[in-house]
């Protein structure tokens, strides 16, 4: 089921575009590889496929099912599961199925068809070389903190007091940063190394004095998917401000994308086919201590669509567990919004609200792991939570327009009519009682952006014909269109291998999810000439709309007080092009 995306989400703008292939392998090689490899061969090495019409089918290897909803398209060169939303190219399949990191998957795939992965360019080498020592510094720091924990009775006592055993502390690599302004000097003789500042371990003050960022804190290392330490969270022992100090954003660490505990949780997530998302470091660690190993935490940021996407790839069920207080409800609402954009199936996302006085850590310590697991097994469904929130009028006074879109989404999710939902939530009087909010000034509606995006996914070269000044930057579809056109315009992506080429290029970026979702629509074989006509038609509508709204604005101005000479000229031109377009249409 496809839900309308409720908000574009400002968080998507300006985010880094992609990370997997951060300059390691030339983009042109990836595109050529995708153009030469056949996804059917690749998938068939692992999963037996049956031909059905134009596509191949199988039971999905990424979630358990009895009737096949996993589809491989030989013409589009991607796979898509209608059950769990798994989607991607031959490269994506290798990564997802075999768990290979990006570069290894590229090498494997290239090898399988006798292609040689080219030598990395000098710039790429420089980028790689820049990151490698930072990773190494972080690893050394983590080791230092771990060793200091062993010799710090007060830190050990603190963790014991919170119910943790040495085994769990080791599993999460917990450490202790000593109460020392330059403690790290012990492991970094060149304490003035700029790289220590770059990776956020050392701070330089205005006087040029250098000192350790983390002092007298329990250290929680944050790992990336490969198990490299990319950041730290440090907690004061007892009371103190700030309670948690975190690594800043660095070349290694981007907060909106990472999830604490994912590396340690991976196996449990697979076993339970469920991932639990909590708010805090301690929640993750305490849950693991009590046998609930499939929990991860967002890092002091709101849940992003990227988080949800990442998680729904690992398990078919995501349960958000937030504190029972107002902040927790707000966090849950943000998670709901992030999920709506990602949902392939509304049953995949649930919410768990603990009693107000609890967070997962205190709950599991008081009630035990089984009690927590029972709650996780029966979460509030997304639809229930949505309806309940709408009823409570939560967050709506500030987001009326959004509420309207959300009612549509929930109607779809619950298979109700929009009127039913509005009635049930008491929204109707609200929308009737007040004048409708003015239409948001953007030149393109979701459906048009979506239409354009699908056409561009079908044939990426169409991106060159997009009138970017007429396309908004609000919805995920609009942002993706923009990013595609920009990447092609700037020459970063010169000859994408169809929709999979685009998807690979944007892997790991905020656009990945929407591109995957929209390209699934390409599975219905479309007539190329029809698609071309629809694309042109939509562009034409956009132009006409832009003309019409400018005409409206100018005539309002004319009524109000008159137009300047060049405005009058512009007005005449616009009316002429409007008339010409009208004449053409009625031909
Ligand atoms: P909480 O304040 O709920 O803390 O913050 P907690 O997880 O219950 O921690 P304990 O049990 O008191 O040790 C939740 C998360 O918000 C971020 C951290 O990621 C924390 O785990 N946070 C909180 C910060 O980054 N800085 C802070 O000062 C507080
Ligand atoms: Mn807590």
Model description:
The protein is α+β, with helices and mostly antiparallel strands and 587 residues long. The chain has 24 helices and 17 strands. The strands form four sheets. It has a six-stranded mixed sheet, with helices on both faces. The protein has a five-stranded antiparallel sheet with strand order 1-2-3-4-5. A four-stranded antiparallel sheet has the order 6-9-10-11, covered by helices on one side. Helix 3 crosses helix 4 (102-112). It is globular. The two termini are 39 Å apart. It binds uridine 5'-triphosphate (UTP) and manganese (II) ion. Residues 280, 282, 359, 361 line the site of manganese (II) ion.
In short:
With 587 residues, this protein is an alpha+beta fold. Helix content is 49%, strand content 12%.
Please tally the β strands and state the result: 17
Euclidean distance between termini CA atoms? 39 Å
Strand line-up across the major sheet? 12-14-13-15-16-17
| Proportion of beta-strand residues | 5-15%
Bound ligands, named by name, code or SMILES: uridine 5'-triphosphate, manganese (II) ion
What ranges have pLDDT less than 50 throughout 5 or more consecutive residues? 1-20, 394-401, 425-446
Average pLDDT, all residues: 82
Helix/sheet category: alpha+beta
């Amino acid at each position: 089921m496809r839900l309308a995306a409720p908000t574009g989400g400002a968080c998507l703008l300006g985010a880094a575009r992609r990370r997997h292939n951060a300059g390691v392998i030339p983009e042109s090689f990836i595109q050529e590889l995708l153009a030469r490899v056949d996804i059917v061969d690749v998938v068939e090495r692992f999963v037996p496929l049956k031909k059905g019409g134009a596509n191949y089918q199988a039971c999905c290897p990424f979630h358990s099912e009895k009737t096949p909803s996993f589809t491989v398209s030989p013409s589009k060169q991607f796979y898509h599961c209608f059950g769990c939303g798994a989607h991607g190219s031959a490269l994506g399949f290798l990564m997802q199925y075999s768990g290979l990191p990006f570069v290894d998957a590229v090498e494997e795939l290239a090898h399988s068809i006798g292609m040689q992965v080219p030598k990395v360019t000098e710039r790429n080498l420089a980028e790689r070389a820049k990151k490698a020592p930072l990773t190494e510094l972080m690893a050394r720091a983590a080791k230092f903190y771990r060793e200091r924990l062993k010799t710090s009775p007060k830190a050990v006592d603190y963790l014991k007091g919170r119910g943790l055993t040495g085994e769990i502390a080791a599993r999460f690599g917990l450490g202790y940063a000593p109460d020392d302004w330059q403690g790290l000097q012990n492991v970094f003789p060149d304490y003035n190394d700029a790289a220590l500042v770059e990776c956020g371990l050392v701070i330089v003050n205005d006087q040029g004095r250098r000192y350790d960022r983390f002092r007298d804190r329990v250290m929680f290392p944050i790992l990336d998917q490969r198990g490299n330490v990319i950041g730290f969270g440090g907690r004061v022992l007892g009371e103190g401000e700030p309670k948690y100090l975190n690594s800043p954003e660095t070349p290694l660490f981007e907060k909106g994308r990472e999830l604490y505990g994912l590396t340690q949780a991976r196996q449990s997530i697979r076993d339970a086919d469920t991932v639990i998302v909590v708010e805090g470091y301690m929640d993750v660690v305490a849950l693991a201590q009590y046998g609930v190993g499939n929990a991860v935490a967002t890092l002091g940021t709101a849940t992003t669509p990227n988080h949800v996407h990442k998680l729904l790839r690992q398990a078919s069920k995501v349960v958000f567990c937030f504190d029972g207080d107002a902040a927790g409800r707000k966090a849950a609402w943000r998670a709901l919004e992030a999920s709506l954009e990602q949902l392939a199936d509304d049953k995949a996302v649930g919410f768990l609200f603990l009693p107000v006085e609890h967070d997962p850590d205190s709950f599991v310590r008081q009630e035990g792991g089984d009690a927590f697991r029972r709650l996780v097994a029966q979460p509030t469904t997304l639809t229930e939570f949505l309806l309940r929130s709408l009823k409570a009028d939560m967050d709506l006074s500030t987001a009326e327009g959004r509420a309207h879109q959300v009612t549509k989404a929930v109607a779809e999710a619950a298979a109700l009519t929009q009127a039913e939902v509005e009635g049930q939530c008491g929204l109707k009087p609200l929308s009737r009682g007040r004048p409708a909010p003015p239409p948001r000034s953007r030149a393109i509606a979701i459906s048009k952006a979506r239409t354009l995006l699908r056409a561009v996914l079908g044939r990426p070269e169409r991106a060159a014909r997009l009138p970017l000044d007429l396309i908004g930057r609000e919805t995920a579809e609009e942002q993706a269109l923009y990013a595609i056109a920009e990447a092609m315009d700037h020459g970063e992506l010169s000859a994408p291998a169809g929709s999979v080429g685009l998807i690979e290029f944007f892997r790991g970026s905020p656009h990945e999810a929407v591109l995957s979702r929209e390209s699934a629509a390409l599975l219905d074989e479309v007539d190329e000439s029809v698609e071309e006509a629809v694309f042109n038609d939509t562009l034409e509508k956009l132009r006409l709309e832009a003309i019409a709204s400018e005409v409206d604005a100018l005539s309002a101005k004319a009524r109000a007080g008159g137009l300047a000479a060049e405005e009058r000229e512009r007005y005449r031109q616009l009316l002429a092009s409007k008339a010409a377009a009208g004449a053409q249409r009625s031909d």
